[in-house]
């Protein structure tokens, strides 16, 4: 699964998506895309859950 996200990340960066800086952490485009997909799938009421999940993913990346 890690390789799938890595390849998707390379493709996203290749078509023009850039890394975002969140304090000292660098957020890859695939994480941002995952955030928006989960937000769309779960609905706006799950914003807190999705935000927490993405923050955990960001900290696991490092």
Task: Give structural notes.
The protein has 62 residues and is mainly α. The chain has one domain. Helix content is 68%, strand content 10%. It has helices spanning 2-14, 29-42, 47-61; strands spanning 20-22, 25-27. Strand 1 (20-22) and strand 2 (25-27) form a beta hairpin. It is globular and about 35 Å long. It starts with a helix and ends with a helix. The mean pLDDT is 82.
In brief:
By secondary structure, the protein is mainly alpha-helical. It has helices at 2-14, 29-42, 47-61, and strands at residues 20-22, 25-27.
Order of helices and strands: HEEHH
Helical residue percent band: 55-70%
Radius of gyration over C-alpha positions, nearest whole angstrom: 12 Å
Could you say which structural class the secondary elements and strand pairing correspond to?
A: mainly alpha
| Whole-number total of structural domains | 1
Strands in their spatial order, largest beta sheet: 1-2
Topology overview:
Layout: H1 2-14, E1 20-22, E2 25-27, H2 29-42, H3 47-61
Helix pairs in contact: 2-3
